[in-house]
């Protein structure tokens, strides 16, 4: 049975589908919360070496005087200020002033608590020579996201979208709460790795479940909703962080919203399309009947058999030819045919770059001129507007052209921001927001594009492995920001060039707007030969539509000709 025929009967956007879109969209809010959390949980406040007690050496002076005597001045971020990593050896045992310098490890650091009461940086002293550990913690989270993409992608294709989704939500709550009570940095990083894995698993299992349950005309709407709610999560995170200034309380607060989402288990059915492809006809029929009941559509066993009979074909001997869907598909099928190799390579390049630049611009809001909280909320608002723009352009122009156009917008914005002098900070912030606008549209478009271009039998594997590869970009993105220590504009220059490369990578892919979802790699090969995919089967009468075919011709070709003639 071709599920597109069922969707036509049930309605592309009935009550069940509308409810499904809302619930699956809501599960992406915690994903946004966890993804952006390190912006505040690992915030770096102003700091300097701890000032020793001056009175013990016979001195009696105010704190500013003690700072002037204890901390050397140097250029910090282009301005002259107190050193963050060095101190004077103020006095020797005889009370004489000693102007030689040493590091802060002996007495530790003092942190400005006017903006952040605590963060993992202040708790574990992740500054100066230990600053790389902060970036490593964020990279470990991204590595978890990548690992989750492939592990839960395989799980979703093997055991189902629904089971994978609910398992990931339960683990997301468990690991998220546990991370708030981490006794050390290693435990925190390990738990954040797991949070990243299950968050990504929940997002893409839900995304694929929704894509497979809707008709072609509603996929863009659903894709935009799934992209919109993480941005809403960023907005909520900025507001939460403004009022919750202790990192462990913030980690706990952003983990608890997953709890009510566990109730969705009783309101969401397994993907009927996946059940049909997995040869679970009885479960597929029950899932379809449940959807029909919610939508108020009659779906009797006779209707099921009628639609099921539309796709039956026989060879010259009167036997049903074996289906390609009966075999087990694996990650090897992503590169088995020429078209799939092209799709997989182009998607991997585009995803890797998009993720690298996207998360770099999110995490880099703390480096922009102005209040950190205001900049973060402003960036979230820019992204929300960008998603609505993406919604419009994808509906009118498809996926391919908007992605290319707005990746170039992001690239040009980043290159322009890199050329702005430091004293024009407001202009640099504006251009950086322009880059955020372009990359948000590109990233959102790419998410829908990937779910449509990979065939059903390997859709979760394809999206999952592309997501895993893309997390290499997420892993390296924190360290690209460190290039500013070599030359301040260098990170933005790198982002600008990468965005242009990503735009060029997808020029080899087919447009998927409005087409029926391909079920097998062979469907994609047919699309590459400029043949449209079969339209949803429609039976002209109550009889079973059986067409004899020659053994020398493929069943797929005969079905296509059969349906086209109806």
From TrEMBL:
Residues 20-514 form the Major facilitator superfamily (MFS) profile domain. Pfam families: Sugar_tr (PF00083). It is a multi-pass membrane protein. PROSITE patterns: MFS. Keywords: Membrane, Transmembrane, Transmembrane helix. Its main location: membrane. One of its GO terms (molecular function) is transmembrane transporter activity. GO terms for cellular component: membrane. It is found in: Membrane. The keyword Ribonucleoprotein does not apply. The chain crosses the membrane at residues 20-44, 136-156, 163-182, 188-210, 222-242, 248-268, 343-361, 373-394, 403-420, 426-451, 492-509. This is SLC22A5 protein. It comes from Branchiostoma lanceolatum (Common lancelet). The gene is SLC22A5.
